[in-house]
Amino acid sequence: MSSRDRILGRVRQALADVPRDDTPYEQAVERAYLREHGTRGAGETVELLAENLADYRAVVHRCDAEGLAETIAGLLAARGASSVLVPPGLDERWLAATTVARVPDRPESTPEELDRVDSVVTGCAVAIAETGTIVLDASPDQGRRRVTLVPDHHICVVRVPGQVVSSVPLALERIDPARPSTWISGPSATSDIELDRVEGVHGPRTLEVVLVTD
């Protein structure tokens, strides 16, 4: 007997005394959760996102669509970046103002090659104001998950207010469950038993979020 057979057998045994007409599982527990806390306008939601991003030690920048390329070029220059990783579907206009060498996101790239790249620029799927979280879903303007986990500097562009929602339940409605998702709340960080914070352990040490007026 396989482990699978044992597990399924125990499930059947545990359910043996449940009537066939019992309330279905998805209806058994009332889930009248709050979908968001309070009522905010679009501007207030964006301000809450910026506040919580900063609280997680992300660096927040703001610009309009016309100034986005110059903003990104300035961030790469300030970082001293000599190379930037580019997802296949990234809007070319976002990098029009920089001469930094572009490294394409290739399936055959090794972790060592990605580690030598200075920065990565991506879009996002949605941003959650209440938690200060950026969600990536591997869409063409975001690339595969590893391109935002290996390079030490991540610039993420969020279109506001269109890509900003108040809460996690509202964000889940926008995410395709069949796509791999990465949820980012600030730069990568962890703490040891003495609560000494260390950044850059399992992802970028620096997260810069550009809130661009759409």
Automatic annotation (TrEMBL):
Signal peptide: none annotated. It comes from the Bacteria. Residues 47-212 form the LUD domain. It holds the Pfam family LUD_dom. InterPro entries: FTHF_cligase-like_sf (IPR024185), LUD_dom (IPR003741), NagB/RpiA_transferase-like (IPR037171). This is LUD domain-containing protein. It comes from Streptomyces peucetius.
